[in-house]
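Dear support,

I submitted the protein below through the web form. The confirmation email said the job was done, but the results page showed an empty box. After a refresh the structure appeared. I'm attaching both so you can tell me whether what I see now is the final result or a partial one.
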Amino acid sequence: MSGKFCINLTCSTDNTDRATVAFVVANAAVASDKDTLVFLSIEAVRLSQKGVAESIHEEGFAPLKDLMNSFLEAGGKIFICSPCFKKRKLDENNLVEGTLIVGGAKLVEFMSDGCPSLSY
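What the results page shows now:
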Protein backbone atom coordinates (compact mmCIF):
# COMPACT_ATOMS: atom_id res chain seq x y z
CA MET A 1 0.00 0.00 0.00
CA SER A 2 1.26 3.44 -0.92
CA GLY A 3 2.33 5.87 1.76
CA LYS A 4 1.12 8.68 -0.48
CA PHE A 5 -2.24 10.29 -1.16
CA CYS A 6 -3.17 12.76 -3.90
CA ILE A 7 -6.15 15.06 -4.29
CA ASN A 8 -6.79 16.70 -7.65
CA LEU A 9 -8.78 19.87 -7.02
CA THR A 10 -10.41 21.62 -9.98
CA CYS A 11 -12.61 24.17 -8.16
CA SER A 12 -12.15 27.39 -6.22
CA THR A 13 -14.63 30.26 -6.02
CA ASP A 14 -16.75 28.55 -8.69
CA ASN A 15 -17.57 25.69 -6.27
CA THR A 16 -16.50 26.59 -2.75
CA ASP A 17 -18.04 23.45 -1.24
CA ARG A 18 -15.81 21.15 -3.31
CA ALA A 19 -12.74 23.30 -2.64
CA THR A 20 -13.38 23.16 1.10
CA VAL A 21 -14.10 19.44 1.29
CA ALA A 22 -10.94 18.68 -0.71
CA PHE A 23 -8.83 20.38 1.95
CA VAL A 24 -10.78 18.71 4.79
CA VAL A 25 -9.88 15.33 3.28
CA ALA A 26 -6.31 16.46 2.58
CA ASN A 27 -5.90 17.39 6.24
CA ALA A 28 -7.23 13.97 7.27
CA ALA A 29 -4.76 12.25 4.95
CA VAL A 30 -1.73 14.22 6.14
CA ALA A 31 -2.81 13.63 9.77
CA SER A 32 -2.82 9.90 8.95
CA ASP A 33 0.88 10.11 8.09
CA LYS A 34 0.35 10.01 4.33
CA ASP A 35 2.69 11.98 2.10
CA THR A 36 -0.16 14.12 0.81
CA LEU A 37 -0.36 16.29 -2.28
CA VAL A 38 -3.14 18.62 -3.41
CA PHE A 39 -2.82 19.28 -7.13
CA LEU A 40 -4.55 22.52 -8.12
CA SER A 41 -5.78 22.36 -11.71
CA ILE A 42 -8.33 24.15 -13.91
CA GLU A 43 -10.12 26.79 -11.77
CA ALA A 44 -8.47 25.65 -8.53
CA VAL A 45 -5.22 27.32 -9.58
CA ARG A 46 -6.85 30.57 -8.42
CA LEU A 47 -6.39 29.32 -4.83
CA SER A 48 -2.66 29.75 -5.35
CA GLN A 49 -3.12 33.51 -5.28
CA LYS A 50 -2.93 35.39 -1.96
CA GLY A 51 -6.36 36.60 -0.84
CA VAL A 52 -8.53 34.16 -2.81
CA ALA A 53 -8.93 31.50 -0.10
CA GLU A 54 -9.75 34.18 2.48
CA SER A 55 -13.07 34.78 0.71
CA ILE A 56 -14.20 31.14 1.10
CA HIS A 57 -15.92 29.92 4.26
CA GLU A 58 -18.53 27.20 3.87
CA GLU A 59 -21.02 26.86 6.72
CA GLY A 60 -20.07 24.02 9.05
CA PHE A 61 -16.40 24.03 8.06
CA ALA A 62 -13.30 25.95 9.03
CA PRO A 63 -12.43 28.80 6.64
CA LEU A 64 -10.58 27.53 3.57
CA LYS A 65 -7.54 29.68 4.31
CA ASP A 66 -7.24 27.99 7.74
CA LEU A 67 -7.61 24.53 6.16
CA MET A 68 -4.90 25.31 3.62
CA ASN A 69 -2.57 26.69 6.31
CA SER A 70 -3.10 23.64 8.55
CA PHE A 71 -2.41 21.33 5.63
CA LEU A 72 0.86 23.05 4.73
CA GLU A 73 1.97 23.31 8.36
CA ALA A 74 1.41 19.55 8.76
CA GLY A 75 3.76 18.87 5.85
CA GLY A 76 1.28 18.64 2.98
CA LYS A 77 2.28 19.77 -0.51
CA ILE A 78 0.34 22.00 -2.89
CA PHE A 79 1.31 21.79 -6.56
CA ILE A 80 -0.14 24.15 -9.16
CA CYS A 81 -0.72 23.05 -12.77
CA SER A 82 1.59 25.21 -14.85
CA PRO A 83 -0.50 25.31 -18.06
CA CYS A 84 -3.70 26.05 -16.09
CA PHE A 85 -1.91 28.84 -14.21
CA LYS A 86 -0.54 30.39 -17.40
CA LYS A 87 -3.88 30.14 -19.21
CA ARG A 88 -5.49 32.26 -16.47
CA LYS A 89 -2.61 34.77 -16.55
CA LEU A 90 -2.13 34.62 -12.78
CA ASP A 91 0.71 36.35 -10.93
CA GLU A 92 3.72 34.22 -9.95
CA ASN A 93 4.69 36.99 -7.51
CA ASN A 94 1.37 36.59 -5.65
CA LEU A 95 1.64 32.87 -4.79
CA VAL A 96 0.49 31.57 -1.43
CA GLU A 97 3.59 30.59 0.52
CA GLY A 98 4.29 26.88 0.28
CA THR A 99 2.77 26.34 -3.17
CA LEU A 100 4.76 25.28 -6.23
CA ILE A 101 4.01 25.63 -9.95
CA VAL A 102 4.80 22.35 -11.71
CA GLY A 103 4.30 20.53 -14.98
CA GLY A 104 2.44 17.26 -15.34
CA ALA A 105 5.63 15.23 -15.07
CA LYS A 106 5.99 16.21 -11.40
CA LEU A 107 2.46 14.94 -10.66
CA VAL A 108 3.15 11.69 -12.51
CA GLU A 109 6.37 11.26 -10.53
CA PHE A 110 4.52 11.69 -7.22
CA MET A 111 1.82 9.20 -8.21
CA SER A 112 4.04 6.66 -9.97
CA ASP A 113 4.05 4.01 -7.23
CA GLY A 114 0.30 3.33 -7.11
CA CYS A 115 -0.72 6.41 -5.17
CA PRO A 116 -4.46 6.57 -4.41
CA SER A 117 -6.21 9.75 -5.48
CA LEU A 118 -9.48 11.64 -5.27
CA SER A 119 -10.77 14.40 -7.48
CA TYR A 120 -12.95 17.32 -6.47
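Response: this is the final, complete result; the empty box was a page-load delay. The first helix runs from residue 16 to 31.
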